[in-house]
Amino acid sequence: MDAAKPTRTDAQSQNQNQRRPNLNPNPNSMSKKKKGGPISMDHVLLALQETKDERDLRIRALFDFFDAANLGYLDYPQIEAGLSALQIPSHYKYAKDLFKVCDANRDGRVDYNEFRRYMDDKELELYRIFQAIDVKHSGCILPEELWDALLKAGIEIDDEELARFVEHVDKDNNGIITFEEWRDFLLLYPHEATIENIYQHWERVCLVDIGEQAVIPEGISKHVHRGKYFIAGGIAGATSRTATAPLDRLKVVLQVQTTRASIVPAIKKIWKEGGFLGFFRGNGLNVVKVTPESAIKFYAYESLKNVIGDGRGKDKGDIGASGRLLAGGMAGAVAQSAIYPLDLVKTRLQTCECEGGKVPKLGKLTKDIWVQEGPRAFYKGLVPSLLGIIPYAGIELAAYETLKDMSKTYILQDTEPGPLVQLGCGTISGALGATCVYPLQVIRTRMQAQRSNAAAAYKGMSDVFWRTLQHEGYRGFYKGLFPNLLKVVPAASITYLVYETMKKRLDLE
Fold this sequence. Notes:
Helices cover 64% and strands 1% of the residues. It contains 25 helices and 2 strands. It is elongated, with a radius of gyration of 28 Å. The protein starts with 9 loop residues before the first helix and ends with a helix.
């Protein structure tokens, strides 16, 4: 994030270049400075080769730049307009968060003292992390030092990406990052300036698996231990789906009932057919598909981000929220299509009538579908399944961001939400998204469960819709919704707990 200095003239720029710290100072003298006690504003002034009066003028000029209306204070529209005037890209534009952080007394406006306090705190914070990265104490960050810092944070990038990162911050293109450049890049970034946040601050972190879609932990695209993260996520997803399998089986049984569906009779029917284990029928396939679906979705997502970025003439990290939503939706469609036959066989296994309580063997069931209905039968219901992906993702994303903002405003007093709050937001938003597209799930399940050569077989998605609407009304599209929502909280909680446990076991923390 580049905080431009609106009042700087060319002469001032030359003077500032002359005042830049020596890039190759005596290491011994630097070591002595670092041992001189806690970091203070004097260290910042020394690094910038700037006097206190010069710094005061710079901060005042930046405040006046935002206060274009000469009100003597800043409100949200002024900060938003100021960031736009600085030509800060939209994915770096944290106007709302910046306003909240600066408005210390919560009176809806930011006076100069509040703005100055933010600048003091932010420059000290940025100097601390600058010093931590500058391990050679050269007064600047070298590309190899930045690479080492990212690697220590678990982020692995190649030489090309490192060069782009440095080039974006290094305004004079001399191949190194001075503290002035570092400060200008992050001065208006209102969140904590950790290495992870600096590199991936546009990515949200949420891990919620309610059994409907594969879960990919966000922010691991460049992680050096991403393989271990997949293992942790796979085990967490498998455990969660197994624990909530009875509710999933009940949901599917209710979805395919075309007569009046009631929970208690459905439970009795499942128990009568298979006893306790009857509630876990089909869970094996549900667990098996977790890892391949996640892997396919992950790699498709990364590839599609590149394609979208190339199409827009941008880097894949600069495709914006709409680009990420499109890439995520398309990646979900690719993953869903790839593992869909497993999903169909699972549904058939869960809904088939068992003579004498004997469950058909998986191999025989699969062979019968292939021989009697043909290979196309394995993709029955795929269209409504794919149609629900983008709306689900869009609703879930919008709800998640809204809930996260509300939690920051009303619960956390403008601090960043931790993992548990994010889990809660993700759980609620995921449940809301799943509810909105639930009619498509019912249509998909009914198409999957019915044999193609049955007497009253559905002719397609529209046929399922009209027959359901005609004979069951709108309520028919929400059969099984209650057990589906009932499993959301335990599924998300189990996923989170197991995932965190596995991260510790795999030395990811």
